[in-house]
Amino acid sequence: MKYRYSFLLFFIAFLLQTTVLNHFRIFGMSPNLILCMVVIFSFLYEGYHGIIYGLLFGLIIDICFAEIFGIASICLFSIALICSELKRYLYKESMVSVTIVSLTSTAVYGLLYWGIYRMLGSGYDFLYIAQKEAVLLGYHVVVTLIIYHFVSKNFKHRSDRYMYRGNLQEARSLYRS
Amino acid sequence: MNWLREHRVLSSILSIFFILIVIMAVSYSHVGSSTAFGRTVQRVAALVQEPFSGAGNGVRSGLKGIFQFRSILRENEELKKQITDLNRQIIQSKLTEAELAELRNLSNILGYDQVAATYNLVTADVIAMDGSNWFNLFTINAGTDDGIYRDAVVINGDGLIGRVLETGPNWSKIISVIDESNSVSFKVFRDMQLLGILSGDGKGALDGYMIDPEAAVIEGDVLITSGIGMYPAGIPIGKVKEVNWNNDTLLKTVTIEPSAYFKNLQKVTVLVKK
């Protein structure tokens, strides 16, 4: 995927996350779309889409909503690196892999975010945050799978050019012969 | 230098982390003050977010109307009955002069006259909210062009919301009272002599303590701002949910349920000094 398309998708996700989705909260929670996008783009695609836009949109989120800048961008950057690394060990085309990556990322992001804020003097209770994260885990898996389905159907990644799209049995018989 | 050339990816990652940590450290020491770049980004974001937020609001209202049509009809019938009852009550009850004087006196004590005399009210729409689900920071579509300044007090129909953290020409960043690190002084509405101090409890609500350990505060008491500090007197903060005695500090502590619901804010009012 070209970087300008992924930028557009990230920008749309940012707008939806900060405006429209706040009107449709479930249990008082709305999904962190930028985190889901970073997970998908770092895990699914070659290149630096997730890392670059995680960093960029993390900074924008910090500028627009945070008291202290840099925390969301550090967290999203770290998640992008983790997902890029997980790509080596997990099968990209599997929904199970995407689910595992989404769960891990949400948990790590929450821990990092809480940890940094705690170091900077925030009084937010770990159990309170853990309860919120538990809801978010389920929420993010669903949203990530939906985005994964949408993105993988509509935007081909670079390795797709080597994929065989014909009849599998024919391919096998060709291979045997 | 050779090491850097050999480990280009690792050194880039470490450099980015280093830059981000420096940004974090600098902004930590200057909380609430953006650079010109930050203000420009915020301004552009506010311009783009405003129509999206309006559209989201419209869609939500529309969907609510469709899915809750039956309950709205039922509610409408109940409200009609209530209006009939209330009209009957209005006719029956007449406010005596003494009661009126008492209410005026109460209004002065609460500082409503003071608020009206010393503050202009700027009403604004919430155009974007922090998507982290933890904090209650949000952006409104009014700023320095409307006379808003940093630390101006923000309220809504339910009570105290927070204060302005940062502002630009057409936007202001608001921090809610439950995320606030500063303490707020309060008094009990039932007995104005009972004073206390509260702050965010780290669990999405408020807790505080009474200055007088013997204060007869009870569950359900309504708390209002006392007028000490930046918040003018008389703004409802919330209800006392729980009263406890702390053996370590020898203070009477209170858990407070905020009167405003911070996750669903649409309109707020900023108090701007005349």
Give a structural overview.
- The complex is a heterodimer of chains A (177) and B (274).
- With 177 residues, chain A is an all-alpha fold.
- In chain A, helix 1 runs parallel beside helix 3 and helix 3 (49-65) packs antiparallel against helix 4 (71-89).
- Chain A has helices at residues 3-18, 33-44, 49-65, 71-89, 95-119, 126-154, 168-176.
- Chain A has a single domain (3-176), classed as Arp2/3 complex 21 kDa subunit ARPC3, CATH 1.10.1760.
- Chain A is 72% helix and 0% strand.
- Among the domains of chain B are: 36-92, no CATH class; 184-258, Thrombin, subunit H.
- Helix content of chain B is 38%, strand content 28%.
- In chain B, a hairpin with a 6-residue loop joins strand 6 and strand 7.
- The longest helix of chain B is centred in the first third of the chain and has 32 residues, at 36-67.
- Chains A and B meet through helix 1, helix 3, helix 4, helix 5 and helix 6 of A and helix 2, helix 3, strand 1 and strand 2 of B.
Please give the share of residues in helix of chain A: over 70%
Q: Strand order across the biggest sheet of chain B?
A: 1-2-5-4-3-12
Radius of gyration of chain A: 18 Å
Total count of domains of chain A: 1
**Most strands sheet of chain B:** 6 strands, antiparallel, barrel
Named CATH architecture of the domain at 184-258 in chain B: Beta Barrel
**Quantity of strands of chain A, as a count:** 0
* Number of helices, where a helix is a run of at least 4 consecutive DSSP H or I residues of chain B: 6
Helix content of chain B: 25-40%
The gross shape of chain A turns out to be elongated
Oligomer: heterodimer
Task: Please describe the topology of this protein.
The complex is a heterodimer of chains A (177) and B (274).
Chain A: H1 3-18, H2 33-44, H3 49-65, H4 71-89, H5 95-119, H6 126-154, H7 168-176
Helix pairs in contact in A: 1-2, 1-3, 2-3, 2-4, 2-5, 2-6, 3-4, 4-5, 5-6
Chain B: H1 2-6, H2 8-29, H3 36-67, H4 69-92, H5 97-110, H6 112-118, E1 119-129, E2 137-140, E3 153-155, E4 160-167, E5 172-176, E6 184-188, E7 195-200, E8 206-210, E9 222-225, E10 236-246, E11 251-258, E12 267-273
Antiparallel strand pairs in B: 1-2, 1-12, 2-5, 3-4, 3-12, 4-5, 6-7, 6-9, 7-8, 8-11, 9-10, 10-11
